[in-house]
TrEMBL record:
Covalent link (5-imidazolinone (Ala-Gly)) residue numbers: 143-145
Protein name: Histidine ammonia-lyase
Domain of life: Bacteria
Organism: Paenibacillus lignilyticus
Gene behind this protein: hutH
Main location: cytoplasm
Length: 509
C-alpha cells in the first residue's frame, strides 16, 4: 500500500484504521513540512525576544503566572512530560496507540503547534518502524487535552518510559535503539505541543466507530435472517412506507431489507399467518435507521477532530499572533462518544428482543422451545438469551453519559472538563457487548432456520447462514456455546460476515 500522506486536513476514519490495524506507512507532505518549519522559527524568535507566551516562558495550568527564563525553556518541557506521565491502568492496545500517534502527527502537521520538524519526524518514524509507546488507558479528564496518557507517548520520544517493539515490552530508549532511532531532547513548546490535545479519546473513538459501523450494517442481515425464521412480513419495508417518513437513514435501511429478503421462500404476507409483526421486526428500519443517524453524527465529529489543531497556545506565523484558546477541550468528542454508546446500545436492545422471540415457544410461531432438538432433556439455546439480556443490561449502565460530569482541576484554573476519554473507553465496551448480542441472535436465527427449512432462505441470508456454519456447527446436542459466541462476535467485528453477504447483494447502505 502507498503511504498515507499527512497534511493536517484530509485524514478520514478509514485511513486511521488502515494505519492502526494494517500498519500502513505514513509520510509528511511537503507543504505541511514547510508550515511546521515556519511555525518553529516563530517559536525560536519568541524565545529569543523574551516574549511572555504560555507554556514557553510560563509554567502550566495554575502556574501560568510563573515566569520561566529562556535558559530553563527546555527543562520546563522535560519536566512537563515527566510530571504529567502518571496515567494508570492497562496499556492501550497497540492499534489504538498507532492511531493516536497518527492523529497527533496529523494535528502537528497543521503547523500551528511550534514543534520542531525533527521531533515530528521521530514520531512518524516510530509509527512506520513499529515503536509503540506503552500508554496506560486511565487518567485523562478530556480537557487541557489527554495530558496524562499522551505524556507516556512523549516520554518514549525522549528515550524514557516504555514501548512495545516487535512484541516485546522494552524501556523506551532500548525500543528506539532496536528500531535504529535516536531520542530527542525537547525544546521550548514541544512538550506542550505533544500532549495538549484530544488524541486519546479521538483515536479510541475512531477505531470504535469503525467497528460500530460494521456492526450496524451486518445487524440488518442478521435481523433479516431472524425475520425469515419467524415467518415475518416484509411488506413493512415497502418503499412508499418509508418515503412517507423520509429520514434518509430509515429509507436506506428499509432498502437493505428489501435487498436482503429478495427471493425468500420463508417470508409471509399480511394475514397469511398474522396481520402484523412485533415491533422488533416491523420497526427495523425505524430503529436501525436511527442508529445510522447516530453513526453519521459521530463520523462527522470525528472527521473534524482528527484534522484539527487541539493544543494551546496556537501560533499563527502569517500575522505573528500567539493565541491562548481552548481547542484542547474534548466536549465535542465526549458528546459524540456518549451518543455512540446510546445508539449502539439500542441496536443490541432490539436484537435481544428478537432472540427472545426465537427461543420463546409462546412467541416463535411453532419453533421448538429454546430451539432444543430434545426439549426437556436438552435446554438448547435457552441460556444464550440470558447472556444477551445480561449484556444489554450492562450496556445500559455503560451508556450513562460521561460528558455530564466535570471535576475542576489545577487549583480551579481548569474548572470544567469533558470526561471525553472516559466516554470513549466505555464506548469500546458497549460495542464489544453489541457484537456478542448480535452473535447470539445470529446463532439462534441460524438454528431456527434449520427447523423451518434453510433451503428456503433468500440468497443473501443463505450466504450469512452458510458463513456461520463454517464457524459454528448446529447445536444437535447440548454443549457449551461460549466459544461459538466469541468466535462469531470476532468475525462480525472483522467484517467476514459482511463480505459474505455483500458478495450476493452488492454494497449495502
Amino acid at each position: 500500500m502507498t503511504p498515507v500522506v499527512l497534511d493536517g486536513k484530509q485524514l478520514v476514519p478509514e485511513l486511521v484504521m488502515e494505519v492502526a490495524l494494517d500498519c500502513r506507512a505514513v509520510i509528511l507532505c511537503a507543504d505541511a513540512a514547510e508550515r511546521v518549519s515556519r511555525c518553529r522559527e516563530m517559536v525560536e524568535e519568541l524565545v529569543a525576544a523574551g516574549k511572555v507566551v504560555y507554556g514557553v516562558s510560563t509554567g502550566f495550568g495554575k502556574f501560568s503566572d510563573v515566569h520561566i527564563s529562556p535558559q530553563d525553556a527546555a527543562k520546563l518541557q522535560i519536566n512537563l512530560i515527566r510530571s504529567h506521565a502518571c496515567a494508570v491502568g492497562s496499556p492501550l492496545p497497540e492499534a489504538t496507540v498507532r492511531a493516536l500517534m497518527l492523529l497527533r502527527a496529523n494535528a502537528l502537521a497543521k503547523g500551528y503547534s511550534g514543534i520542531r520538524p525533527v521531533t515530528l519526524q521521530l514520531l512518524i518514524d516510530c509509527i512506520n518502524l513499529g515503536v509503540h509507546p506503552v500508554v496506560p488507558e486511565q487518567g485523562s479528564l478530556g480537557a487541557s487535552g489527554d495530558l496524562a496518557p499522551l505524556s507516556h507517548l512523549a516520554l518514549v520520544l525522549m528515550g524514557e518510559g516504555e514501548a512495545f517493539y516487535q512484541g516485546e515490552r522494552l524501556p523506551g530508549a532500548a525500543a528506539l535503539a532496536r528500531a535504529g532511532l535516536k531520542p530527542i531532547t525537547l525544546q521550548a513548546k514541544e512538550g506542550l505541543a505533544l500532549i495538549n490535545g484530544t488524541q486519546i479519546m479521538t483515536s479510541i473513538g475512531t477505531l470504535t466507530f469503525m467497528k460500530a459501523q460494521r456492526l450496524a450494517q451486518i445487524a440488518d442481515a442478521i435481523a433479516a435472517l431472524t425475520l425469515e425464521s419467524l415467518r415475518g412480513i416484509p411488506e413493512a419495508f415497502a418503499e412508499e412506507v418509508h418515503q412517507a417518513r423520509p429520514y434518509p437513514e430509515q429509507i436506506g435501511v428499509a432498502k437493505n431489507f428489501r435487498t436482503l429478503l429478495k427471493g425468500s421462500k420463508l417470508t409471509t404476507r399480511q394475514g397469511e399467518i398474522r396481520v402484523q409483526d412485533a415491533y422488533s421486526l416491523r420497526c427495523l428500519p425505524q430503529v436501525h435507521g436511527a442508529t445510522r443517524q447516530v453513526l453519521d453524527y459521530v463520523r462527522d465529529k470525528l472527521t473534524i477532530e482528527i484534522n484539527s489543531a487541539t493544543d494551546n497556545p496556537l501560533l499563527f506565523p502569517e500575522d505573528g499572533q500567539v493565541i491562548s484558546g481552548g481547542n484542547f477541550h474534548g466536549q465535542p468528542i465526549a458528546f459524540a462518544m456518549d451518543f455512540l454508546k446510546i445508539g449502539m446500545s439500542e441496536l443490541a436492545n432490539i436484537s435481544e428482543r428478537r432472540t427472545e422471540r426465537l427461543v420463546n415457544p409462546a412467541l416463535s410461531g411453532g419453533l421448538p422451545p429454546f430451539l432444543s432438538r430434545n426439549p426437556g432433556i436438552g435446554s438448547g439455546l435457552m441460556i444464550t438469551q440470558y447472556v444477551s439480556a445480561s449484556l444489554v443490561s450492562e450496556n445500559k449502565v455503560l451508556a450513562h453519559p460521561a460528558s455530564v460530569d466535570s471535576i475542576p482541576s489545577s487549583a480551579n484554573q481548569e474548572d470544567h472538563v469533558s470526561m471525553g476519554t472516559t466516554a470513549a473507553r466505555h464506548a469500546v465496551q458497549v460495542v464489544d457487548n453489541v457484537s456478542k448480542v448480535l452473535a447470539i441472535e445470529l446463532i439462534c436465527a441460524a438454528e431456527a432456520a434449520e427447523f423451518i427449512g434453510a433451503d428456503g432462505l433468500a440468497p443473501a441470508t443463505r450466504a450469512l447462514y452458510e458463513k456461520l456454519r463454517t464457524l459454528v456447527p448446529p447445536v444437535v446436542d447440548d454443549r457449551s456455546t461460549s466459544a461459538d459466541i466469541e468466535r462469531t462476535a470476532d468475525a462480525l467485528l472483522s467484517g467476514e460476515f459482511l463480505v459474505a453477504v455483500e458478495a450476493i447483494t452488492g454494497p449495502l447502505y
